[in-house]
């Protein structure tokens, strides 16, 4: 049978094939990616859309966790100071209710309790990065301002709203407790009971002092209970942080398996492609120039 | 008649024949690398016998002609595969440009969506920060721009394919004209009983080029070759060519008309023309429609979420994005520029982040089409990738077929230098031998003449 005398197309096709294999292998090794355009692997490219979005979100969730954690910790430490202030106020109230304390002494205690009230108000107006911690969702303005018409001498400017911050695709954490719940609750009014104590001390009425001290004492235990909310948030945030770290790892490993390159394999593939290319080139250089004319003497 | 003169005649005929054969061999060698050239084999026949008494003497050799060695069926298959490959190549090269817009490079929709999504997550923790609010607006603008860019890339690829339609039609017309001329020449030469090999070679080569441009159907008729497009629109009949025309259609695209003015755009398949038309009228519009409906549905859903909440001034949220009724992706934009207009609050107070969850949900909740924005976009990426990869794979596969077919054709029609060299030696030897016969007869004749003197 007659064979195709023109080997050039075959040889060229072979050379092109091996050359493109070298190029592909080289690109994988140099970029570290097996998929650079969607046609390299359409399904993996499609999955990468979700992966990219999820990875970026997880980064931001992680930042949210740390910022909410700082906020919750700041709130909690403010409440912890409130608790010590109230404890001190109770001690002072007990001292004031004691029959041995004279009117001047009560006046002095009243001034001290007034100072405690001021410091509790200052704590209630704590802010974190420009946002007030105890104003409900109205966190742009100081929750408590002096107001002579109010029984406690302070009015609440905030609301009863609660912000929940997203820290996961389906998880958000309560980041604040409104001041109306902690400091000026009708049944456990921290500010009200402190100002009643001041008034009672000023008037010198031991029974009133005793009663105000009792209500401070009940407010104290209420505030302590409220701290549980923050403690829970902290626990939740800490465990979410761990989860997000794992999530980052698993998204990265998903990305690697979708579009990444196994370097050992890629390097081997490159070496193989290079060998094949060199072999094809060597074969071409041997085969192409040969015709019968090479063997006939020129004088023939 | 016998005698020395008869032998001299035979020898001189042989010399002429071998000269012709050497000429054919020389031509074969000269055209060994000419595209479309078909090797020619000299046809020798015995001359009529002559009888001298009871002795029958051969009449020598005649060169009756040169025969081109060609296989029409193979040519048809090659044309067919060439049309298919050219269509795949055309689509592959345009789709390769298109698909780069769907890779995660930074300005693409995936990157913009992820940045927009994370800007909302950030807003959840920092509802009061105007820098973070501004971040939401900026990343929203980037998202709109990414939709614009992707849509524009698709549209310009479509325009590129459209330009190719006009150019290809012009090339087709040039080729069919030349083919018709050659058809006429072949008919004339055949009628005059002359060798048509070279003319046929030229025509085959042009038909081969034509098959790159569009799918063909080629038939041999009494008038020569009849060439029609795949669906039967005549291009060449005998020595007459039929030009195709282009005209701008109602869709703003170039439509192809046959010689009678009928619109045959939709029925053109294969070849560069068929590939461009399929890409322009089906593949890319399919992508554009998906992208537009994605942009429009997402915008509606996000604006609805925005309307559920209140901006930093306590007013109900205004529309965040706007899209035109048609060409949604190309015309998508962000309507608000004041960071305070992002509807973050759910209760009207500045500081509430209650509506951020709704805004985020617009990115993750299913759109009316049933998929979330990222799922729908991922589906589009998959389709673009698959289309590009299919075109590439198809081209490679047909390339292998073509290589085989061309090998077969080469084995039939290709010039082998080895074979021609061997023939050259044969014809040279025959020529030398015939020349020896002539000189021998000359010697014999001089012997006879010397006898007289």
Helix run count of chain B = 10
How helical, in percent, are the residues of chain B? 55-70%
Q: Residue ranges of chain B: pLDDT <50 for 5 or more in a row?
A: none
Q: Please tell me what the overall shape of chain B is.
A: rod-shaped
Helix content of chain A: 55-70%
Strand content of chain A: 5-15%
Morphology of chain A: rod-shaped
Describe the structure.
The complex is a heterodimer of chains A (300) and B (453). With 300 residues, chain A is mainly α. Chain A has a domain at 50-255: f41 fragment of flagellin, N-terminal domain (Up-down Bundle). Helix content of chain A is 66%, strand content 6%. Chain A has helices at 8-31, 42-97, 103-124, 179-182, 190-203, 206-259, 263-287; strands at 127-128, 131-132, 144-146, 154-156, 164-168, 171-174. In chain A, the strands form 3 sheets. Chain A has a two-stranded antiparallel sheet with strand order 1-2. In chain A, strands 3-4 form a two-stranded antiparallel ribbon. In chain A, helix 1 (8-31) packs antiparallel against helix 7, helix 2 (42-97) runs antiparallel to helix 6 (206-259) and helix 5 (190-203) packs antiparallel against helix 6. Chain A is rod-shaped, with a radius of gyration of 39 Å. With 453 residues, chain B is α+β, with helices and mostly antiparallel strands. Chain B folds into 2 domains: 3-69 and 415-452; 76-401, no CATH class. Chain B contains 10 helices and 12 strands. Chain B has helices at 3-30, 72-99, 109-125, 130-191, 197-213, 271-308, 328-331, 356-364, 373-413, 417-452, and strands at residues 40-46, 50-52, 55-57, 61-68, 216-221, 224-229, 234-237, 240-241, 245-248, 254-257, 321-322, 333-334. Chain B has a 4-stranded antiparallel beta sheet. Chain B has a two-stranded antiparallel ribbon with strand order 1-4. Chain B has a two-stranded antiparallel ribbon with strand order 2-3. In chain B, a hairpin with a 2-residue loop joins strand 2 and strand 3 (55-57). The longest helix of chain B is centred in the middle third of the chain and has 62 residues, at 130-191. Chain B starts with a helix and ends with a helix. The interface between A and B is large, with 59 and 69 residues.
């Amino acid at each position: 049978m007659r064979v195709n005398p023109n080997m050039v197309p075959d040889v060229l096709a072979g050379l092109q094939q091996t050359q493109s294999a070298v190029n592909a292998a080289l690109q994988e090794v140099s970029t570290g990616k097996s998929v650079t355009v969607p046609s390299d692997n359409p399904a993996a490219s499609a999955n990468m859309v979700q992966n990219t979005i999820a990875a970026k979100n997880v980064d931001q969730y992680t930042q949210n966790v740390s910022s909410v954690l700082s906020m919750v910790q700041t709130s909690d430490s403010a409440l912890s100071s409130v608790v010590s202030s109230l404890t001190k106020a109770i001690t002072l109230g007990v001292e004031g209710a004691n029959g041995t304390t004279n009117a001047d002494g009560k006046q002095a205690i009243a001034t001290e309790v007034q100072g405690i009230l001021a410091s509790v108000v200052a704590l209630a107006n704590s802010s974190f990065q420009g946002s007030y911690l105890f104003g409900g969702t109205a966190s742009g303005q100081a929750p408590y301002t002096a107001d002579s018409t109010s029984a406690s001498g302070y009015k609440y400017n905030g609301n009863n709203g609660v912000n929940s911050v997203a820290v996961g695709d389906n998880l958000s954490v309560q980041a604040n407790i409104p001041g109306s719940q902690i400091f000026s609750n009708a049944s456990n009014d921290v500010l009200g009971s402190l100002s009643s104590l001041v008034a009672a001390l000023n008037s010198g009425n031991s029974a009133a002092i005793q009663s105000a001290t009792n209500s401070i004492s009940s407010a104290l235990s209420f505030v302590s209970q409220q701290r549980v909310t923050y403690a829970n948030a902290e626990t939740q945030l800490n465990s979410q942080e761990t989860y997000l770290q794992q999530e980052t790892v698993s998204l990265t490993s998903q990305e690697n398996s979708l579009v990444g390159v196994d370097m050992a394999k890629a390097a081997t593939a490159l070496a193989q492609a290079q060998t094949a290319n060199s072999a094809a080139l060597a074969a071409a250089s041997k085969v192409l120039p040969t015709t019968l004319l090479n063997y006939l003497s020129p004088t023939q | 008649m016998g005698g020395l003169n008869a032998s001299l005649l035979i020898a001189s005929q042989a010399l002429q024949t071998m000269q012709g054969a050497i000429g054919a061999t020389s031509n074969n060698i000269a055209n060994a690398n000419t595209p479309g050239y078909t090797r020619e084999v000299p046809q020798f026949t015995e001359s009529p016998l002559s009888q001298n008494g009871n002795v029958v003497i051969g009449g020598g050799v005649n060169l009756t002609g040169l025969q081109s060695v060609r296989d029409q069926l193979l040519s048809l298959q090659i044309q067919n595969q060439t049309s298919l490959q050219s269509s795949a190549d055309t689509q592959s090269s345009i789709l390769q440009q298109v698909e780069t817009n769907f890779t995660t490079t930074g300005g693409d929709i995936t990157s913009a969506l992820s940045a927009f999504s994370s800007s909302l997550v950030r807003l959840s923790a920092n509802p009061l920060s105007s820098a973070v609010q501004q971040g939401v607006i900026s990343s929203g603008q980037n998202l709109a721009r990414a939709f614009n860019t992707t849509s524009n890339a698709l549209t310009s690829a479509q325009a590129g394919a459209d330009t190719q339609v006009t150019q290809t039609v012009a090339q087709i017309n040039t080729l069919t004209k030349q083919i018709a001329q050659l058809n006429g020449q072949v008919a004339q030469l055949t009628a005059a009983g002359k060798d048509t090999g070279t003319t046929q070679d030229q025509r085959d080569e042009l038909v081969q080029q034509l098959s790159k441009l569009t799918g063909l159907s080629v038939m041999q008729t009494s008038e020569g070759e009849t060439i029609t497009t795949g669906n039967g629109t005549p291009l060449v009949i005998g020595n007459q060519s039929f030009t195709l025309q282009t005209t701008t259609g109602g869709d703003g695209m170039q439509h192809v008309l046959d010689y009678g003015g009928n619109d045959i755009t939709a029925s053109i398949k294969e070849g560069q023309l068929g590939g461009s038309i399929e890409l322009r009228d089906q593949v890319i519009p399919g992508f554009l429609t998906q992208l537009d409906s994605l942009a429009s549905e997402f915008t509606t859903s996000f604006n609805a979420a925005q309307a559920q909440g209140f901006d930093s001034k306590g007013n109900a949220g205004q529309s965040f994005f706007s899209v035109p009724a048609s060409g949604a992706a190309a015309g998508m934009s962000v309507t608000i520029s004041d960071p305070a207009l992002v509807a973050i609050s759910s209760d009207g107070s500045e500081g509430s982040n209650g509506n951020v969850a709704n805004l985020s949900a617009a990115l993750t909740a299913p759109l009316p089409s049933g998929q979330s924005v990222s799922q729908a976009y991922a589906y589009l990426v998959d389709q673009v990738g698959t289309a590009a990869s299919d075109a590439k794979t198809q081209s490679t596969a047909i390339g292998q077929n073509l290589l085989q077919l061309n090998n077969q054709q080469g084995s039939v029609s290709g010039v082998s230098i080895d074979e021609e060299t061997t023939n050259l030696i044969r014809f040279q030897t025959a020529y030398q031998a015939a020349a020896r016969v002539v000189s021998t007869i000359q010697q014999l004749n001089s012997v006879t003449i010397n006898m007289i003197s």
